[in-house]
Amino acid sequence: MKLFWSCFFCFIALFAQGQEAAIELTNPSFEDFPRPSNPPRGWYDCGASNETPPDVHPEGGEGAFKVNMQAQDDLTYLGMVVRDNDTWEAVSQRLKVPVKKGKCYTFSIYVARSIIYESQSRTTKEPANYATPAKLRIWAGNNYCDKAELLGETKEIINTRWLKREFRFEPKGDYYYIILEAFYKTPVLFPYNGNVLLDNASAIQPIPCDEEVLANTELNEETPQIIPTIPNEPIRTTSTYTPPSVPNTPITPPPTPAVSDTGTTIGGVKRDELKEGQTIVMENLYFEADKSLIRSGSYVVLDDLSKFLRQNKDVVIEVGGHTNGLPEDAFCDSLSTARAKTVAEYLLRKGVQPGQLTYKGYGKRNRIDSDSTLEGRRRNQRVEIKILSFDDKPTEKK
């Protein structure tokens, strides 16, 4: 009998050694005093050195950011933002034991987005709502903020209630640190202001590498897009590229005001200064990030252009859309064409004659600056007006 029990306990010990324990995180529910610019205890700030750290929510009442969603677990949760100056927030912590090369793991965390996250725009210095959907990326490394390997990422987080996200990963190395990072929807042409809320992270659980993990179900809570009505007389397009459909949600312009007797310009260029083949960049014309939706503050520019074209019916133009060079060619072609088309359709609705307009998307073919800087990418991301002719029909392009 003694021999039996000795063998039994030896078997149990060997079995236990073969089962790797889950890696528990420190403060996985991000509990702390609700406050701005201070990550929860146990988590280290990995954001840009010249920016404020992440925040602990909910603030309650009229807090600094007005983020008041209830926590998914316990009392508080983590809020991180992406900014329009090409900076974003992240937090990190050291694991009690490393994740190991060739081993497989599962991990889950609850994510959400706040529809109100008020702060100041880093580019305009004006109040801004950091509410555009962003995504969560999970990194591993061997020091705080060391992003050695991307373990997983979500799609952009559009849900405004807590949803659980599951990850399965197999590291290519041994790592002692984990990083949770808010990041832009990719590909991104312009950085924007957005937020990610995180709560109730699980332990990192070892699993057999042949074990399946249920796929996440993405909840579609986006507002339905409205496709603009195409005029009866189609706009002529000089583009040979047929992009995939890109939804637009244009704001219906106000009724066309009576045209005054005073002269107008195209981008500051007077009528007698225009030449065939001349291109003019439309300054202060802005779109929503990665979309063809015109921002409401840009309609003044387009109204001036429509007024000029209504007064000068002999002027025929091409609306040209351009992007920076970071995304793939097909995406750049699609987006630039959609934006050029949106501008042309707006001009038609303002009373410009269809015979005066063509549009074309050039993608990233005609960049005018380097994409290595934020300012350079902003200059490349533009709409240009090209003077095709000064008669009732456009000249053939050479």
Question: What's this entry about, in short?
Answer:
With about 400 residues, the protein is an alpha+beta fold. About 15% of the residues lie in helices and about 25% in strands.
Explain this structure.
The chain has 398 residues and is α+β, with helices and mostly antiparallel strands. The protein has two domains: 21-207, Jelly Rolls (Sandwich), CATH 2.60.120; 236-241 and 267-389, 60s Ribosomal Protein L30, Chain: A (2-Layer Sandwich). Helices cover 15% and strands 25% of the residues. It is built from four helices and 19 strands. The protein has helices spanning 2-18, 299-311, 329-349, 374-380, and strands at 44-45, 55-57, 77-82, 90-99, 104-112, 118-120, 127-129, 132-133, 135-141, 149-153, 163-169, 175-183, 194-199, 205-207, 236-237, 279-281, 316-322, 357-361, 382-389. β6 (118-120) and β7 form a beta hairpin. The longest helix is centred in the C-terminal third of the chain and has 21 residues, at 329-349. The relative contact order is 0.12.
* CATH-level-4 superfamily name of the largest domain: Galactose-binding domain-like
Q: Describe the biggest sheet?
A: 7 strands, mixed
Number of helices: 4
Instruction: Kindly state the number of beta strands.
Output: 19
CATH topology of the largest domain: Jelly Rolls
